[in-house]
């Protein structure tokens, strides 16, 4: 079984990248998956992840 671990500061980096490019890369998606599975992230980080996922669903952020 694989263990997924979130890198420190990864969510902030993903947010900055999406703000600049308006798309999520495959590695960004793996980072978001790790964040969703991580019970120890802060409430602020969890809100950022949720905001990104809602943007994808609404079509404001594309997947690459």
Task: Determine the structural class based on helices, strands and strand pairing.
Answer: mainly alpha
Report helical residue fraction: 55-70%
Mean pLDDT: 92
Strand order of the largest sheet: 1-2
User: How far is it from the N-terminal to the C-terminal residue, by CA?
Assistant: 27 Å
- H-E order: HEHHE
Total helices: the number is: 3
Beta-strand residue fraction: 5-15%
- Count of distinct strands: 2
The unreliable regions are none
Main beta sheet: strand number and arrangement? 2 strands, parallel
Rg over C-alpha atoms, rounded to the nearest angstrom:
11 Å
Instruction: Based on Cα principal axes, name the global outline.
Output: globular
Descriptive account of the structure:
This protein is mainly alpha-helical. The chain is built from 3 helices and 2 strands, in the order H-E-H-H-E. Strands 1-2 form a two-stranded parallel ribbon. Helix 1 (10-21) packs parallel to helix 3 (43-57). The radius of gyration is 11 Å and the shape is globular.
Compact overview of the structure:
This protein has 64 residues and is mainly alpha-helical. Helix content is 61%, strand content 6%. The chain has a two-stranded parallel ribbon with strand order 1-2.
């Amino acid at each position: 079984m694989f263990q997924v671990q979130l890198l420190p500061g990864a969510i902030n980096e993903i947010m900055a990248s999406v703000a600049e490019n308006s798309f999520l890369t495959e590695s960004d998606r793996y980072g978001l998956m790790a964040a969703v599975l991580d019970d120890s992230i802060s409430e602020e980080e969890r809100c950022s992840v949720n905001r990104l996922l809602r943007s994808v669903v609404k079509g404001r952020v594309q997947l690459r």
